[in-house]
Amino acid sequence: MTKRARSMLRQMDRITRSWFLPTIGREKATFIGRLIDKRRPKRAVEIGSLIGYSAIVIAGHLPPGGRLTCIELNPYMAMIAEENLASAGLATRTRVITGDARRVLPFLGSRFDFALIDATKEEYFEYLRALEPRLARGALVVADNTRLYRSRLKDYLAHVRRSGRYESREQGFGKDAMEVSRFLG
To answer: Which domains does the chain show, CATH number per domain?
Structure first.
């Protein structure tokens, strides 16, 4: 990750604390960065970008030639995410799409080998079902807030843990967790 991107994340850390915006935060960002460094995905998608914090983490860790597609429902937040990605020097590696991921994903031509889902919790399973035809075999799918919102994510968690289409594990972060699932095809 470039110095410029790291600097932008530090600024965003200060802003999100003041505005009480729910970003993934430093600990989860470090974890995601390590996952991407290890797996070296070329095509990533983020469902739920808010102001672009995790998008900067993902795009900043992608290997040369890697691309990130961000899907954000709120047009105002999508605009802010795009501006923050540009300020971090990552505009050429990213594309921000405004819309409902369930409706946008079927029209994307790419196959993705990394995905982060961090949007409306009750819709995680629907996002995943829309994403599955676009996933490359072996793709990692990371879902945020799976411990805090476990009761809202029952269908999602049951699918990644018991469908036979994924190898899945929970990665704990204090009172919260992320579900990390490898798509088997």
So the answer is: 3-183 (3.40.50.150)
Each residue's pLDDT, cut to its tens digit, for the chain (185 residues) gives 778 787 777 776 777 766 666 777 788 999 999 999 999 999 999 999 988 999 999 999 999 999 999 999 999 999 999 999 999 999 999 999 999 999 999 999 889 999 999 999 999 999 999 999 999 999 999 999 999 999 999 999 999 999 999 999 999 999 999 999 999 98
Burial class (CB within 10 angstroms; exposed 0-12, middle 13-18, buried 19+) of 136:
middle
Q: Which residues of 140-163 are buried (b: 16+ CB within 10 A; e: fewer)?
A: bbbbbbbbebbebbeebbebbeee
* DSSP code of residue 20: T
Tell me the two tokens of residue 159.
Answer: 């699918």
* Phi, psi of 138, deg, nearest 5: 90, 0
